[in-house]
Amino acid sequence: MGAVRTGVLGGTFDPPHLGHLVLAAAARQQLNLDRVLFVPARLPWRKMGREVSEAQVRLRMTEAAVAGFEWAVVSTLEIEREGPSYASVTMQALVADGGDWWFILGADALADLPNWYEPETLLEAARLAFAARDGATEVPFGVVAALPGIEARIDRLAMPNLDVSSTALRAQVREGQATEVLLPHVVRAVIDEAGLYRTA
Ligand code: ATP
Ligand code: MG
Q: From the centroid of its chain, how far is CA 108?
C-alpha cells in the first residue's frame, strides 16, 4: 500500500457551504486523496476585527456539513491549540505522521498567503491544491515574487465557479432569505437552532 494521501482544508467555516464541499471534493478526486481534513480555525487571525462565531458552533456546523462523506474528516487540531491558528504550524504537526499532504485553498487565500505566518514553512510541509475563485484563476505575480519557487509546489484544481461565500450567506440568513442549496440544510438547521447571524 502506498503512502496515505491527505488534503487539508483550513477555514473559518462561519458557516461552511457548498463552495467548501465542492473544493474539497475536487481535490479528493483530482489528486486521488484518501481523505480530506476540514480544519476550523480557533482564532482566524487574518479576520481579526470582525466578529467570528464561537469555535464550538463552527465545529458543529462543519461536522454537519461533511456528515455522510466517508472521505471527509473534521479535525479539532486548531480549535484545541492555544493562540492564533497558523496553517504552517498545523501542517508541520500533521505531516510529522508521514504520508503525502496537500493544503487546499482558493484564489483569495492564495493571494493572501505572503501575509500569513511563515508561509515558506507551509510550502515545505505540503504541496498546495489551488482552485480559482470569483474569476481569479492565476497565481498573482506578487505571490510568486514574495515566495519564489511557489509555482512548483502548486497543483491546480478544476472546479466550477460557485458564487458563494460565508459572508454572503450570513447576510442572507440575517435578512431572512432562502439559503438553499449553497448552504446545506443540515448546516442551516444548526444556525437556526443556535440563533446565529441574526444581527450584523
Ligand atoms: P468569509 O466570507 O467569511 O471569508 P469564505 O466563504 O471565504 O468565508 P473561508 O472559511 O474564509 O470561507 O474559506 C476557507 C477556504 O475555502 C479558503 O481557502 C477559500 O479560498 C476557500 N473557498 C471558500 N469558498 C470558495 C468558493 N466558492 N470557491 C473556491 N474556494 C472557496
Ligand atoms: Mg474567506
A: 11
The most distant pair of C-alpha atoms in the chain lies apart, rounded to whole Å, by 51
- Using DSSP's 3-state secondary structure scheme, residue 106 falls into strand
User: Per-residue pLDDT for 1 more than 70?
Assistant: no
The torsion angles phi and psi of 183, rounded to 5 degrees, stand at: -105, 115
For residue 199 the three cell numbers come to 444581527
Query: How far is the C-alpha of 154 from the C-alpha of 171, rounded, in Å?
Result: 33
Ligand 1 pocket residue status of 147, Cβ below 6 Å: no
Ligand 2 mean position to 11 CA, how many Å?
A: 7
40 in ligand 1 pocket by Cβ < 6 Å? no
Residue 13 beta carbon below 6 angstroms from any ligand 1 atom:
yes
**Mean pLDDT, rounded, for 112-136:** 97
Separation of alpha carbons 129 and 21, rounded Å: 14
Instruction: Report DSSP letters for 71-88, one per residue.
Output: TEEE--HHHHSSSS--HH
Instruction: Say how many C-beta atoms besides its own lie within 10 A of residue 42's C-beta.
Output: 20
- Residue 121, pLDDT > 80, answer yes
Which domains occur in the chain, in start order? 5-161 (3.40.50.620)
